[in-house]
Each structure stands twice: as structure tokens, then as C-alpha cells.
Amino acid sequence: xxxxxxxxxxxxxxxxxxxxxxxxxxxxxxxxxxxxxxxxxxxxxxxxxxxxxxxxxxxxxxxxxxxxxxxxxxxxxxxxxxxxxxxxxxxxxxxxxxxxxxxxxxxxxxxxxxxxxxxxxxxxxxxxxxxxxxxxxxxxxxxxxxxxxxxxxxxxxxxxxxxxxxxxxxxxxxxxxxxxxxxxxxxxxxxxxxxxxxxxxxxxxxxxxxxxxxxxxxxxxxxxxxxxxxxxxxxxxxxxxxxxxxxxxxxxxxxxxxxxxxxxxxxxxxxxxxxxxxxxxxxxxxxxxxxxxxxxxxxxxxxxxxxxxxxxxxxxxxxxxxxxxxxxxxxxxxxxxxxxxxxxxxxxxxxxxxx
Length: 355
Fold this sequence. Notes:
This protein is of the alpha/beta class and 355 residues long. It has helices at 24-27, 35-45, 59-72, 98-105, 123-135, 233-254, 272-282, 293-296, 304-312, 314-319; strands spanning 2-5, 8-18, 21-23, 49-51, 81-87, 113-117, 142-149, 169-177, 183-189, 197-198, 216-217, 223-224, 230-231, 264-267, 321-330, 334-343, 347-353. It is 29% helix and 27% strand. Helix 3 packs parallel to helix 4 (98-105) and helix 6 runs parallel beside helix 7.
């Protein structure tokens, strides 16, 4: 689906991350592989360290701490909030929704719209789409877009394919109406690839029980249970290389832009290897495509694009306008692109919390 939005702005962006760092070098003995073999992945994939939240922490904990920080530092006034949109794969409960929990915590007005969306890798793009659509009918209020997952709670520490990638984080973006360049947004889906990224148990189809938590060797030396997340790395890599470059090339042609016209390419962060191959295929200059999120924080699912922005581009976002290409790809399978001018942010920062 394709959209063109007019006069919509992202005006602030906050990253909220746990203060606990776990280092790849300290995790190599978790796995049933020779240490030397495992260490070879460090350079290729961009592994170094990632952020892990405490087992009892939830997405709402991070969101509440972030919003409190924003209110205390006058990033936004409570009366300005017209909608809360939460995009996550990690609900606190099946019911109530995280947006309702946040609404209650801050005693927001009954006219504040609360929406929770279940989306992973493309969560920021889908969240932008929903925010822009709501703002079409909400001229004097702002949207708080909350993206985040704590997927370390759902990954096996004995799974070398998945555990080193995962990083916990939540981001909060302030989105409002205002004079801007036109924004192009596109989202695509191929449900036939749905099993390429999956948590097999825990929903109504296969409820968690005493059997779904049993760790077993998956036949490749990795141990995980049905309660754990798994990404078929080869399937996702092939999907990204097959679908994303043609989409980007087509959109660039339709929008009459070239790679040289962009100041920044802010992409989902699966791992450095996949991003390098994607940049090579599309002809994206690597100095304009940050690839360092996984090595410093881990793959934070739908929070990757805003967290990458905060990590790498704070000054650019505060001090000038930047023509940006955003792109995400993964669970669903879903892939998308946004062409947008970002900059002159009122605020752009990151905080650590002991959760």
C-alpha cells in the first residue's frame, strides 16, 4: 500500500534502553560450538554487545520512564497529547493494552486515542503511517509513537543464531502537524513467508505449557524451546535481497530521486552483514547508512530506525534538515520505505534506566 502525506513532522525522538550490557565475548561458552568458530561471527555480523532488560521488566515500564523524562524536561505537555500509539510484539498482558496502561499512569483525558499494534521489524514505518493518518483528523494535538520490544525475554541464551542479535529498547517519537515536504510511505506484505520469524508457542494456537518450555537441540547445535523466538536467517536474508532493492529502485525512479540526493539512509538493523550486502546491491554509500546498532545495542526490532537515528544523528537532527530514506524489512514478511525530510528536532536524546 502506498501513501503520500502532507504537512506532518517528527519533532522529537527519545531512546530508552536498559543499563545492563552483555558482551558477545562473555557469551561464547553458552553455545555448543568451538569458541574460535563462534568468534569469527563477531566481525562478519557486527556482534559486540547488546542491552538486556530485567526479566520482570515490561515495555510499559520503559515507556512510562521515557514519557516522564519528556514531561519533566518540557519536551511535551500532557495537554498536548492527542493519541498514544504503541507498536510492539511484547504486550504486558493480552488485555489491557499498553497504551491503556500508559493512559492511566498519566491520567490522560478521555478523548485521548489509545492504539496498540502488533508489528516487529517494520513497526516504526507502520507506526508512522498510523500517526499520520490520525493527525489528518487531529489538527491541534500531537501523537506519541512508542516503538519497542523486550525480546530477550523470549530468546534462548543457548541459541547462537538468535541470542547475540537481540537487544531490548523502547523509543518515543513526537509527531504533529506542521509545514513539511511531502512524505512518501509504502508498506508491502508476503504472508507466505510468515514462518521465517516466529515464536511457535504462547498464543491461542499453541498455548505455553510444561512441554513448550523444554530446550532441545534443533539439529544444528542450537538449543531452544517452542516458547523462544527463532529467525530463519537464510530465508530472511534471501527475502531482503530479493524484495528490498527492487522496491527502493522503483520508488527512487517514481519519486525522481537518486541515492546521491539523500543525506541519510536510516534502515532497520538486522546485522551488519545484511546491511552491507543491501547497500552494495542498491548503490548506497556506506558512510550515509549507519550499521552500528547491533554491535552496540542489538537488533531492537521495530525500535531500530529511531534508535539508530538517536545513536548516530542527534546533532544532524537538531541542527538541520536532512533528506532521509527509511526502510525496514522482516517479520510478516513485511517490507517498506519512507522518503521524508527529518531535522530541526526540538529534542533528540537517549536515556538508560535500571529496568
